[in-house]
Batch of 3 targets.
Target 1
Amino acid sequence: MPDASHASSPRQLDVAIVGGGLGGLYAIHRLRKLGLKVRAYEAGSGIGGTWFWNRYPGARCDVESLEYSYSFSDELQQEWKWPERYGTQPEILKYINHVADRFDLRRDVQLNTRIKTATFDGATNEWTLRTESGEDIRARYCIMAAGNLSTPRVPNFKGIGSFKGKWYHSGLWPHEGVDFTGLRVGVIGTGSSGVQMIPLIARQAKHLHVFQRTANFSLPARNAPMEEERESRHKAEYPARRRAAYDTPFAIGGYPRPTQSALDVTEEERNAAYEAKWQEGGSISYLYTYTDLLVNKEANDTASEFARNKIRGIVKDKRTAELLAPKDHPIGTKRLCLDTNYYETYNRDNVVLVDVRSAPIQEITEKGVRTAEAEYELDVIVFATGFDAMTGALREIDIRTSDGAVLADHWEGGPLTYLGLMVSGFPNMFVVTGPGSPGVKTQMIASIEQHVDWIADAIDHLGRHQLDRIEPSPQAESEWVGHVNAVADSTLYPLANSWYVGANIPGKPRVFMPYVGGFDRYKKRCDEIVSKGYEGFTLSRHKAEVA
Ligand SMILES: Cc1cc2nc3c(=O)[nH]c(=O)nc-3n(C[C@H](O)[C@H](O)[C@H](O)COP(=O)(O)OP(=O)(O)OC[C@H]3O[C@@H](n4cnc5c(N)ncnc54)[C@H](O)[C@@H]3O)c2cc1C
């Protein structure tokens, strides 16, 4: 029940923002510049989103830090110094806190505040957000910056409550850290988080069992301390580089566009090209070796096989190497991991890979994990099992309108959005990097900035034209969803059972969620829609007096 003190005096805002990560923080900054009254609500006890929650050993970005950073302020990008090629989680969190102080964002962030419901009232043209403690917030516009990878998923294993040891999820890591020294540890899951933490846990633990259902491709990050010369060159070229990034599919500049098909060159040339990328480190650069690695299976097979052979060359035990070499999806069609000594870790005496594809986990017992084949006694279990991606955070909020529209019903068969930015039937509610946007397939901060800029421009446009309501037409929404799927179907992405299609969540509708047509094409489409008077959107004036 709402507490009376809150209920009697709802806070009145122009724009309410859900989430205090990179998206929510940039939205505060950008909307304030329009003179709007804004406030962000964050469930966590600190800002930073992903980088606040994911404190597991080895957590770091897999896009180089000089790219994976805000571009909206040249002073900021010039003054900040990244100590390593790929920033660690503490470093990125320090950066986010610096940004919040530098741009005085904290005064408009309310921490420890989870939004439970969001209701649009058609009569007053306002959203009311209600917090877990019953506080009501009213706002003309609402921005969901609740994150794509912010709803950790612990599989519903039988017996989990009976385990006598400790368990952790990578996305809800204790702030004080976990000491694995001398312990028998089990890591369940070998996606990006598992791949990052496994080499470090292996060094501390007495014994490590890795429970793998699906092997993922991982490439060497080649992380290293930042070279001064590289940093100053990059900084000198920043404005041009950021502009160039906007013309690339992944929103990352600096990689020459591929010009050839993998099938147009000899095997020798191809392997030399892949070898050079392997040595250079980084995932985008590998996928950018040829034009057709993500659209032509035969071309992709060459890159996948090269990576599989690398794994076979590193991992000494043949059976383990074959289990680690992915064969069920083309390279790049699931999130491509970057690692430091991941495959080498399986050569250690204290590490064992357990194949839970052939012998699935049946239950968690008092002592550890029981598979169809054996029971593994453990002191600690780490779930690196990922997130209810892309729709999880929005589905956890009860979002509805006075007309009877309910987001959970509207999305029953899979998420429907126009541009990933808005949902038909839910006026004045914007989503940052939602399903249908290219966000998760890009350097996400670039997508966040582009989305928030688009949203801010739309709100500004409404204000300047004495309008106060915007919503996409059902037709525009369904055409966009059709386009997102058609583009995905023209690539190899649908061949993978990935979180892009919700495959990691039992019962989740199997729909391809991200737009994989490229950030460059997406941005052009967004700009074109604006230049055509917000094509596909209905803009209207609800009240005589406009806020
Ligand atoms: C381990 C990991 C590594 C990553 N590495 C990269 C990388 O290298 N490059 C890259 O481009 N991207 C990476 N990502 C993606 C990353 O999520 C984005 O880059 C970016 O941080 C997203 O920012 P955001 O603000 O949109 O969402 P988030 O950072 O997820 O923030 C959303 C916030 O909303 C809050 N929230 C959610 N629901 C509610 C609610 N109902 N009420 C109140 N608050 C709520 C959450 O607590 C969270 O703090 C990574 C993700 C993970 C998990």
Target 2
Amino acid sequence: MKYSLFLFLGFVLSGISCKSQNGIANVKTISTIKPAYWQQHVDYKMEIDMDVKNYQYKGKQQLVYTNNSPDILYKVYYHLYFNAFQPGSEMDVHSRTVPDPDSRIGDRISVLKSEEIGYINVKSLKQNGTDLKYETVGTILEVELANPIQSGESATFNMLFDAQVPVQIRRSGRNNNEGVALSMAQWYPKLAEYDFEGWHADPYIEREFHGVWGNFDVKLTIDKDFVVGATGYLQNPNEIGHGYENGQVNRPKGNTLTWHFVAPNVHDFTWAADPNYIHDTIKVPNGPSMHFFYKSTMPKENLENWKNLQPKAVELMQFYSNNIGKYPYDQYSVIQGGDGGMEYAMCTLILGEGKFDGLFGVTAHEMAHTWFQFLLATNELKHYWMDEGFTEYFGELAGSHILNYSFKDKTKSVYDVYRYLAKSGQEQPQTTHADRFNFRQAYSISAYYKGYVFLAQLAYVIGKENQEKTIKKYFEDFAFTHPVPNDIIRTAEKVSGLELDWYLMDFAQTTNTIDYGVKAIEGSTVTLERIGLMPMPIDVTVTYTDGSTEDFYIPLQMMRGEKPTSAHIIKDWAWAYPTYSFKTNKPVQSVIIDPGGLMADINLVNNKM
Ligand SMILES: [Zn+2]
């Protein structure tokens, strides 16, 4: 089979080379069809006028969009996320029809009154001065361009919009349940991303992140008593004060202040504001300034938690910078707001009234997102497991290191949740769009737990040191881009020298499961069996009748090599063979597969004999 395929390919290839005049013509054709990596670029300039009495704001947006794709663009799309918070929206109806809705949403959107809904109404839109035709369709603005944007060209879009901040339902909104006045995530008309897969004008149903990399310049005019925490660097600290000043504060006269923020090389911009925020800052040695915004009106115990969080947040920042890659901005803010914990550019919005461990845990998780999704900006709607799963893994790795709890125990409990899903009959492959799961729980376990297992188990497959090197190289090679699953697995292949496509495909693109078992022990011969469809290399420990033990490693043939191991490496196991036997030097008492517990075998009962 293999040989005949090669003969066939050889015939086709020689046919092509005969037709071309020289080798260069072919190379050119191929690079035109499949260009090297590219990504779009956008520069935002926004002037926002916020009325804190009726929660409405007016916006002026100028956007310079550069088309780095090889394609001519005839349309563009914007996200108008706040339109999701209207009765009858997709978010509303999905929440009322999915069997296990998010309790924060439930049917709350369906009963919002007109003064409580969210909206972004586009009043005008011009491309290079020419009025454009556009239509608001749910949470997406569909725009027909007056002049197509050629490959390599830029266009300037000028927009005027009116908006209303919804009652806090999900992620953003006014007056959250801890009384934070404004949690402003997904609050502006945001250009949809166009990448090698085309447009991603996904409606806002549950998940939101995939944005265009660029620079933000935001001027925010708001009541002078409000303290603002935001994505960017404040440009006029001494006109503002509120804990930002680095000299004499000189506020302009009037009831409002205009805050000027600049954020370079990000793909989103978030802010929150409240008149009762305490604003603390602490500097990470050789790292960014960290800002903390939390309500002074909280009970004393909560205020103490926020003080105690600050040195721990510094340690988190150092841990991630050392173990993944250096945090590239000069500022990071932990802001009380939102409805749980949510990651944004250079900041997070978290609830702030919980116990210390909870406050630390959510900060650890959200800060880890700076690396997984923010800097390594995978499309969250498609590859949520690389976003939530890797974040959860590093959040716990850092947390266990800093608060001194067992990472191994935590990992075991994560594997157990994955096993529960795998056996539940509700699992859908991780190639399922985040919004298209039958059960929200199946999404959550796939994203957070199975994603975590993917990374933890990678250490089993290629060795712990190789796994650690893979993470660092993945960051080095793909930060500030939009990596896809193949990028992490190719990185692991390059680091380890092993073939790993099977690992990505079986684990992250199907619902195949791992089940190996000990079938028989006969004297000094051990027989193992593969019951599940998914292949794996096998760590196995043998205890002899004299009480001594020996570790063996059975390479998986399709990996074309072995992980670094101190175990006794024996002949490899080709996947299609259902059983595998090996002989030892002494009579065997008992056998255990994967004593380290890092293989996500769904049936552990047969792993021992
Ligand atoms: Zn998360």
Target 3
Amino acid sequence: MSIYGTVQVKDGKYRIKGDFHNITPNMPIRKADEGWRLVGVTNPRDMIYIHSYGGEAVFFESLSKGKIHASRCDNPDCEFKGSIFLPFRIHCPDCLGRNTVIDHTDICRNTARVHTFMVCERSGAFNTLDKPIKFVNVEFDGVCTILMSYLSIGEPRIGMRVIPIFRTISPTYTITDLSWVPEGTPAGDLPEGFTFG
Ligand SMILES: [Zn+2]
């Protein structure tokens, strides 16, 4: 049995099972150059955060299957009817209506370009991406938003054509399951666990 708590939803309710707060024993902090006198303790704590995706769940599920889902406002009364959002937005920011979920994989594959980028040599706690992290803002034909993601191979440049890749093998169901590579990258060069779809 896992030492970590797990969650399922049944009959419309979150059912949690197991431990969500784990305490491990303290360790003394001692001062080596003063006869190992006690100066403090470490307090290891392990906490599980339950992150509910709500209406965005379809987006993360689709990444694990090599698909990019966007959303579109189809409200006939909206001034900006037809707007397509990626990152996925549950609601239209202009009319607040519920958007339609659309499969946008082919348009992403055929039109994605680097709008701008930044390269980070350092990262915060719990970083799982290889450093330096090449963050790219990706733009697509017909999409009114810009997607923040990361380039897995090569050096980013503005206007560069990029192709989506997906962590379809052991997906994490987070945004890092989606990444990008330069157009023309051979399948054999992709990072472990990633495929073109
Ligand atoms: Zn709208």
